[in-house]
Amino acid sequence: MSQFRLTGxxxxxxxxxALSGKILRxxxxxxxxxxxxxxxxxxxxxxLKRFAGHFVPQTFxxxxxxxxxxxxxxxxxxxxxxxxxETWSIMPTNLILVDIGxxxxxxxxxxxxxxxxxxxxxxSGQTSDSLGFSLLALLHHAGCDTTDFAxxxxxxxxxxxxxxxxxAITRYVGCPVLFTPGDLPVPLENHYYRADQVxxxxxxxxxxxxxxxxxxxxLVVVDFGTAVTxxxxxxxxxxGGLIFPGPLTALNSLAGATAKLPGVNxxxxxxxxxxxxxxxxxxxxxxxxxxxxxxxGLVARLSAQLQGPVRVVGTGGFAARxxxxxxxxxxxxxxxxxxxxxxxxxxxxxDHTDHTTEQTTEQAKHAAQRC
Length: 371
Hints:
Blueprint: E1 2-5, H1 8-13, E2 23-26, H2 35-44, E3 48-51, E4 54-57, E5 74-75, E6 78-79, E7 87-89, E8 95-100, E9 104-111, E10 114-121, H3 128-141, E11 151-156, H4 162-172, E12 177-179, E13 189-190, H5 200-212, E14 218-224, E15 227-234, E16 237-245, H6 247-257, H7 279-303, E17 310-316, H8 319-323, E18 331-332, H9 336-356, H10 358-370
């Protein structure tokens, strides 16, 4: 456990001067990683939320242990001589985040302020036990224990995998399982004619982009997976988007429909297309630069229909490759959907805490006023 004395200068920068002089305790971000990583985690997680009359990181809001009335007294930023300063423990929430896609399953382990991301193949031959043993192996690799996690948050576009994952988590990990949007609704106004037809992954990624860019009026989220999706967000509204085959899906379809075309990988160092002088280069450049040009064209057309400055966020396995070839993707956040799952849990958990801990909050306010 690492400790930091909260100085006036640090807390002034975080808009929490009334906590000056307290001791902040944080768990190591990794065993042996030292205090610097802990403080960086605290700093980086300052998605600010007003709680108990002060601004504190939203990630930790529900987990702050406020001192009770029997605790040591303090005046201003000074401790009473001879007494131990009050200790405020701030612990991050450990979560298992799961994105079940048609081709792969991404599993994020948020543990003591760090995040490890793994990919497993989505297979119809999986059983709950095979998934459970895979999860145990991932937890072991990440240095985690099954008792470490508060919940497993799942976004799935493969309904057949949902009961298998629920059974695997229940039997082998033992934490609650929450699905979005069923258990954790996405707080965007959905403009689809039939709201239930929108893929959960699209909604979660759109909402994550909105939370990460609160001051940008409009967003276009481009997700490169089995399908490529363009999703448009205006303010707090999800407007809809576009869907078409992804790069690998297009490549596999081309190979499956032709007898003579060779197998091709899509690794490419070129930044401009050239007339291919062999079939592999022709296919590689055709798909990569074709998708880059498509992104440019569709982003321009969609942006023209949105109000205010538009930011384009790329995510998914192929986003980084396409971003090299076009400036249309202004940023790439590979694990945007996993971030969205974490933010959704925090949003739900904070709301739940706000409604069920009024008495604790009042005690916290009184404690803060004494300082």
